[in-house]
């Protein structure tokens, strides 16, 4: 019984440490939209928990825009959802 608790504790600790490392590594990065690849499907907008991305409709059609770049933690969840390679991480200015 105690072995299971130790294993669960180690897994949780590694998960938390991995998340902290990822945030530290990407703290100077922000999401950027590659306009020519974006189809406006909105999968990344639904995936973003910080509500950084927004669908915009203009004369060229529907595409994505980075609405709140200061909220972006560069977690990469939206990049994983995009099938068209329309998102990438760039250095903050």
Structure write-up:
- The longest helix is centred in the N-terminal third of the chain and has 24 residues, at 2-25.
- The protein contains 3 helices and 4 strands; from the N terminus they run αβαββαβ.
- The strands form 2 sheets. Strands 1-4 form a two-stranded antiparallel ribbon. A two-stranded antiparallel ribbon has the order 2-3.
- By secondary structure, it is α+β, with helices and mostly antiparallel strands.
- 37% of the residues lie in helices and 24% in strands.
- The mean pLDDT is 88.
- It is elongated, with a radius of gyration of 17 Å.
- It has a single domain (2-91), classed as Alpha-Beta Plaits, CATH 3.30.70.20.
Compile the SSE list and pairings.
Blueprint: H1 2-25, E1 29-33, H2 43-47, E2 53-58, E3 61-66, H3 77-81, E4 87-91
Antiparallel strand pairs: 1-4, 2-3
Notable traits:
alpha+beta; two-stranded antiparallel sheet; 93 residues; 3 helices
Return the structural class. Answer: alpha+beta
Overall CATH architecture: 2-Layer Sandwich
Report low-confidence residues grouped into runs of 5 or more.
none
- How many distinct beta strands? 4
How many structural units, i.e. domains? 1
Q: What profile does the largest beta sheet have?
A: 2 strands, antiparallel
Order of strands across the biggest sheet? 1-4
- Compressed to H and E, one letter per element, the order equals HEHEEHE
Would you give the CATH topology? Alpha-Beta Plaits
What is the averaged pLDDT score? 88
